[in-house]
Amino acid sequence: MAETSDDSPDVEKLYEYGERLNDAKDKFQHASDYEAILKATEEGSVKVKQLAAQLVPKFFKYFPTLSDRALNRHLELCEDDELGVRVQAIRGLPLLCKENPEHLPRIVDALGLLLLPAGETVERDAVHKALMTLLRRDIKTSLTVLFKHVGNTDEPSTEEIIYEPSTVESIREKVLCFIRDKVFPIKAELLKPQEQMERHITDLVKKVSDGDHIDRLISCLHMALPFFTRGASSNRFLNYLNKNIVPVFDKLPEERKVDLLKNLAECSPYVTPQDSRQLLPSVVQLLKKHMVRRKVEEINFTFIECLLYIFHHLAHKTPNATNSLCGYKIVTGQPSDRLGEDFSEYYKDFTERLRTIDDLTKAMVKKLNQGMTEHNKAMAAAKTDEEKDIIKRQKQNSTIGLQTCNNILALIQPLHSKSPSFIGDRKINLSWKEAAKPSVPAIAPVAGKKRAAAATNGSGTHIAKKGRGVGGLQNQLVNRALEGLYRGRGGRTSGRGRGWGGGRGRGGGFH
Fold first, then answer.
1. Gap between the Cα atoms of 333 and 362, Å rounded
2. Quick count: other Cβ atoms within 10 Å of Cβ 391?
3. For residue 500, which of 18, 241, 338, 400 is within the disulfide window of CB 3.0 to 4.6 Å?
4. CA 80: distance to chain centroid?
5. b/e string for 316-333 if b means 16 or more Cβ within 10 A?
6. SS3 of 298, please?
């Protein structure tokens, strides 16, 4: 408990200051009372500080000449040793900028920093509630400030404090979790005007521009997924990817390469034809890099699964773009067909790579099936739970590896023709995702009762009606985005970014 000096105000004295200010018509004439309240934030007891934390925001707007001092004192209360003082001060932060919006950026920034030490539930809830209040008040400014803690933006934090790298990373993870858990579930309510805010968020996510920070782009990528059904936003974001994905890809650690390709694979079905045409050259460039022309001992099959899946979905929307990239003869009747040009060397090179990968994949399938037989024998002979757990993990890895290989074979098969058909549906289940459960047949409505607006699946998630594609699809995207958003260096979720680890580079994908 804080010690009090002889001239420090007690609770009764503080109430007196507050009542006098409350009753005064010309409150600015009672600046001495407000200054006494500010003094109490430094020297008062716990109860005095709690009361001061209520009074400082209440009369803040009447004393602009004391605003900087008042804001500093109140922020210090937010870091007081006593939980009750901190919570009361945090609750009062939104009031400080209710009629003084110029202070909103600093307060949002401070609340972002306060996400880190907020361990107690009541304190954490107070920070979340204060942030949500400010997001509703000014969504654009508030998100801009929060994103300063996420990536490499042009401006530093408004709080001139230098943190250790590990602390910066922890703050970033807390902010990402807050955006994932609190902001995006109610994005329809918050992001208004919708088109303008979609563009603004896309621009914020794009401020991660070099190899050292592309890692953060991957963590942010899922936040952009809900906007991929909107042409303008996806166009801007994919233009950025098109310019940066190839140059920085080799600089990434193996795990993060897998993360990036998996995220792109998941969003590829929703990319517009215009964006597909722009991104396809970069995808083909990476595909040729990883689809070797000669048989080698090691190959990253997870990379190839992702890239082939992306290639199919992009090419399905703009098939004639593959003429000049892969030598395929696709006729759409448009000048972009470029049928008068000779791309036969591209076709020969691309199909030779496909045949090599096809052979290597079939050989891996044979090897994995043999391994499964050995795992089953080892399981029968295992005596301890530890041995059984190890074998179970090995079998699980082999199962994922087999699914990866089968997906590659299914994706390669249509590409052997000079005029191939590109897969544009989602019948191929990506190896790291659970197989989709069959849809429940619709139940005929009981006579005299209204049909339900939407069915729900077993988990309670609403299934959109047929004909409402964009809305239902976008909600599914958001759900996946929120599940996979938090993937900082120190806190990746399991099941993503690791792929199937066989051979060297374990953890970077299925080799």
1. 38
2. 19
3. 400
4. 33
5. bbbbbbbbbbbbbbbeee
6. coil
Number of C-beta neighbours around residue 345 at 10 A: 9
Query: Residue 203 has which token pair?
Result: 């621009």
| Dihedral angle sign, alpha carbons of residues 347, 353, 356, 357 | negative
pLDDT exceeds cutoff 50 at 91: yes
Evaluate if residue 460 carries a pLDDT over 60.
no
DSSP string, 239-294: HHHHHHHHHHHTTS-HHHHHHHHHHHHHHGGG--HHHHHHHHHHHHHHHHHHS-SS
Asked if 297 and 259 count as a contact pair (C-beta separation under 8 A), the reply is no
Q: Name the DSSP letter for residue 493.
A: P
Which residues, including other chains, have CB under 8 Å from residue 338's CB and lie 6 or more apart? 320, 323, 324
Distance from C-alpha of 41 to C-alpha of 418, rounded to nearest angstrom: 77
DSSP structure string for 433-490 = SPPPPPPPPPPPPPTTSPPPSSEE-TTSPEEPPTT-HHHHHHHHHHHHHHHH----TT
Stated as kind and residue range, the H or E segment containing 381 is helix 344-381
pTM: 0.54
Burial of 510 (0-12, 13-18, 19+ CB in 10 A): buried
Tell me the pLDDT tens digit for each residue of 465-507: 333 333 343 334 334 333 433 333 333 333 334 344 333 333 3
